[in-house]
Amino acid sequence: MSILTQNEAFRNEPFVNFALEENKRAMEAAIAKVKAGLGRDYPLHIGAEKIVTEAKIKSINPGNVDEVIGYVSKADQTLAEQAMQTALATFETWKKVPAAERAEYLFKAAAIMRERKHEFSAMMVLEAGKNYAEADADTAEAIDFMEFYAREMLRLAATNERQPLTPVAGEDNKLTYIPLGVGIVIPPWNFPLAICVGMSTAAIVSGNTVLLKPASTTPVIAHMFVELMEEVGLPAGVLNFVPGSGAEVGDYLTTHPKTRFISFTGSKEIGLRISRLAADTAPGQIWIKRLVAEMGGKDGIVVDETADLDAAAQAIVASAFGFQGQKCSAGSRAFIVESVYDEVVEKVAELTKKIPSGLPEQNYAAGPVIDQGSYDKILGYIEIGKSEGRLIAGGGKAEGNGYYIQPTVFADVDGKARIMQEEIFGPVLALGKAKDWREAIDLYNDTEFGLTGAFFSKDESRIEEALQTMHCGNLYINRKCTGALVGAHPFGGFNMSGTDSKAGGYDYLLLFTQAKMTSRKL
Q1: Which of 35, 354, 378, 501 has the largest CB neighbor count within 10 A?
Q2: What's the angle, vertex CA 335, arms to CA 332 and CA 340, rounded to 5?
Q3: Which residues are catalytic?
Q4: Tell me, which fold does domain 300-477 have in CATH?
Q5: DSSP codes of every residue in 40-80
Q6: Does pTM surpass 0.90?
């Protein structure tokens, strides 16, 4: 595998082809290695201290619920306060570290993760229920984020890349980007490495210190990242690992007067709660907290009668059921013009029925959903769907000693139905009929979310109009609505999908900095 250096232009980490026997064997060996180390205890990391607590988060394999991934120490408010004070003290030195030195930690970590990528992926196969390709893509994206943000910090720090200012005779004027302070990073469980790494390293390379509170269902893969940053020599206290309850630790840190920013990825409901809590000014607080929020989606695909219907059906199924529909970008609905509706519905049903379910470590296309709460919620929505549409595939539990649900499709669903409007976050797809392509776009736009979408057509004038009228942060033409690549598809949505922060884009690091203008009389 090639090792990028900071002198090379950024390029995306290539995905592994698991159709090749040697790659399949390598992943199987990595899974066996990770399984041999399951059931360990994992401490908190607060500065240089490794703290083991009596209270633990028990991480289990959603595909085999009898298998314990690990026991992760759980912070309380006292330990959260200790972590905050450590991060505050460390910030005073870390903010003075040159940008090139900060970036070098990311380059080193990316190189090591690239060498051990199957081990990181194997942990996600077991802890998150991802198949080989989904886990590999997650690891590749984590590598991409580190490579990309390191280069971005070097660009922002370079004198000739600063914002050009209008010259004034007799003055030397400069605009520089300085760090914010201590940030709380709250990543999701569905991309437990990529988004965790991306949010944390963007803040760190910008000169901030971080309190990382991982998702309670996937804390062990987050700890692997923390260990990696320790291995590359990141100074103690820059990245602090504080798993814990959202109600206890999350709320405490969000409302803390010394918290400068919160970087969150997760549900609309929790994102709005964080927004409300962060908006209140705590005693002793001297700034407005900055919130970078990536929230939910109710994404969809529009298909007109000129489209390649086979390609459209394949994209609908891939977007809906990749990683069991547990992506904020997942295409959980599709609107198809009536003249080709029946044909596309039939193709989607046929493709969906062919998706095999089983253990992620055996690389089945469909695995489990993440936990009991999600399992119960999704099955509940399937029951709602049976009264709102015509069931054409799936419709219930799937076999296995875990949280397995059949990939499920409902046809003839009204645009105002609950399964068309509410984020289910599971393998449930709703199909609706439109009289023409413009009505299909109107139906697509009728949502409180605005993250991803796709439009399938061969008509250039329609494509141009769709580009203007489909309201979402990431719009794709004649391809699936999942699979954004760092640098190529900066990712973030509108409306209730978040603050449109555009992760993996050229302005993302600005969210973790503040611009300081200096003017010197000559």
Answers
A1: 501
A2: 130
A3: 294, 328
A4: Aldehyde Dehydrogenase; Chain A, domain 2 (3.40.309)
A5: EEE-EEETTEEE--SSEEEEEETTEEEEEEEEEE---HHHH
A6: yes
